[in-house]
Amino acid sequence: MKYIYKHGNHYWYQRAIPMKLVKIIGKKTIKISLKTNKISTALVRSKLQSAEHKKMFNNLLNKKFSINFLKKIEISKYNLNFKDDSEDLFSNILLNKKQITNLINKKSDQTIENFLFNNTTLNINLPSKLLEKYLKLKKISSKSSQYSSIVNSIKYLINICGDKPIDEFSSVDSKIFKNFFVSKNRVSTGKRYQSNLFNFFKTLYNYLNIDKKNPFDNVEWPVNYQKKEIKTLNDEEIINLINIIKEENSLFSIVIGCILNTGASVNEIIGLNRNEINLNQFTPYIIIRSNNLRIINNIYKKRTIPLVGVSLDSMNKLISMSSNEYPFYDFLNINFSIKQIESKINFRIKKVTKNKSIQSLKYSFIERLKRINCPDEIISEIIGIKNRTIFYKNEVSVEMKCSWLNQIIE
Question: Domains along the chain?
Fold first, then answer.
């Protein structure tokens, strides 16, 4: 943590003076009490004080010094005067007279104890306040498939462990977090949220120069839990979906049509750029890669998928109906989210099938390829997963993938 050290029960700011200014200022270092025992408060105060001293150094280095000028230097004017934590509490009470009145008259659900002792913490390092900063640092938009998962992770963290400064979280909190999901028999969801929180704390600890072990690292989850069984579509259900795809010109029919013979996700299909859709070649295909709307970090998810059967028909239909750079956006509201789209599509699929889902489409796609004895490495290439049995990377051509996909066309 830059310029911060702890002496006794309080944090101090210490900064070395540039060698050119040591003789002028008359000392080698500057020490200032930050008057707090909270690291979150100390970090903010240190940054504020550092900015003032940077101004001082620049001003002194840019001036032509004279003996008379040097005698008039007042370094103290660049030192910030911080209130002690007890003074912060007193100020908090004075500046929130209305809240205190409501508490006394029982017009607020909050207790006086919570108000006095919980609201004194500097709010800037709370997970609820840092979420937006984290999303900006990671360049995750509200339209990204990761967005809702990350937001939900923070919501659960706050509900389970409280909205406290991130440097106050520990392995105890991660255990409480884990036990909550284990008790609800939602281990897979808990593991996904824990992974999000690990990245959240890692990124923000680095950004805020917090030297502390990530509380959500190395969380051990039980392995003997029941995974939710995902049922595949039968032939009759696939035919019913194909009939809807051919009859309708809706967002549902086009998305399902594109997924049915590609195994791609809703996010991958919705985020396609016109330049990533190639319908003019002998072997039509789509390219799944990062673009201005989404970032794909997993190298196995970056792939080329041939278009055959209803997937090719649906993509042709989409291009003919849209002139947008991102064709699907002509069907969507400005404030849409991938989660909302998936929810609506799932609702429709359940009505057409026997309570199946979008995931059922992907599993059905894999089963259809397995049924014709399609090699594992080709299935992995098409759906975008790592095949652990492959030691050397042998690229599978689009034509080869297309020849296998043509064999599962209904």
Answer: 4-82 (no CATH), 86-121 (no CATH), 124-207 (1.10.150), 235-408 (1.10.443.10)
